[in-house]
Specification:
It is a single chain. The chain contains four helices and no strands. The protein is elongated and about 65 Å long.
Length: about 80
């Protein structure tokens, strides 16, 4: 299912550059916008789960952690 994306508050110069680029490539502004997004995102490498988990562990390493069994017990006691 195709999605819809609306980009607001673009500088006039950006819009003008997009229009010129679209004209050079023989595309509509919308088609050029799609192509720019496709190229930019296809080059991006999606991190795997292990990398994301390691990053999260590093971000929370010095934070005090509450064991899940304690949180579950507190949740049951509140009912």
């Amino acid at each position: 299912m195709p999605g819809h994306l609306h980009v607001r508050n673009l500088d006039d110069e950006i819009v003008a550059k997009l229009k010129r680029r679209a004209a050079r490539h023989g595309r509509s502004v919308e088609a050029e916008h799609r192509e720019i997004l496709r190229q930019a995102l296809s080059a991006e490498i999606e991190p795997d789960f292990d990398s994301l988990a390691a990053e999260l562990r590093a971000l929370t390493a010095k934070r005090r952690q509450t064991p899940s069994e304690i949180l579950l017990r507190e949740g049951r006691d509140e009912r």
